[in-house]
Amino acid sequence: MRIREYRDEDEMQWVRCRTIAFLDCSYWDDIKRKKDKFKGFSISLVAEEQGKVIGFIDAEMDSEDVSCSRHGERNAVVWNLGVLPEYRKLSVAKKLWEETKRRLLAENIHYCEVWTQEDIPANSFYRRMGFSLEKEHSWLRCYSQGQQCASLLNEKIGDIYRPEQLIFNAPISRREELKDICCRIDEVRLYSLRF
To answer: pLDDT tens-digit profile of 159-170?
Structure first.
């Protein structure tokens, strides 16, 4: 296995790898048909085994979406990280992160954030890599369907017909209140690391 820079010709393998890697986690429905493009300078790496993309990481540097950006500190955010299931437990994600971290340090970046959900393997991985949970920045992504969805909509919306699904964000403090009107609730968590 080798870690290398992503190339444009990797796009279909990247999409396939991301789709399969996310199938057994709470991001299973975050399907992409093209690789993300970032506004800022980014690091995009793939792990390759015998010509096959088996893992990936994308980190954007100096992102406006990172909490420290408003303080003028250089930063990065990991937007995508995944490994095909059959290659997990072989340190592929760790090697991808270590190479990304090395490249961030070369750019004089010493702070990185990543957003994830409640998936135990992902949370455990980020903690093992030294990231700390920023609990005060966590929030809920809520999914409502059918009648429950219709009951959440405000009358000010005007004429619409039978909404089938509503996805919205809410504070964690509302989890108990929302559990009966949502078919799915994911806690979105922020992890950060200074290095």
So the answer is: 666 678 889 999
Nearest to 6 by CA among 81, 62, 74: 81
pLDDT tens figures, 113-137: 999 999 999 999 999 999 999 999 9
Per CATH, is 2-137+189-194 categorized as 3.40.630.30? yes
Place of tokens 């072989």: 90
Question: Which one-letter DSSP state was computed for residue 146?
Answer: H
Please state the pTM of the whole predicted model: 0.88
CB 140 within 8 A of CB 186: yes
Specify the long-range contacts of residues 22-28, CB closer than 8 Å, at least 24 apart.
22/82, 24/85, 25/117, 25/119, 25/121, 25/122, 26/117, 26/118, 26/119, 26/186, 27/117, 27/119
Domain boundaries, the chain: 2-137+189-194, 139-187
The rounded distance, in Å, linking the Cα atoms of 77 and 67 is: 10
User: What pairs with residue 190 in β-bridges?
Assistant: 115
Token code pair at residue 44: 């995009």
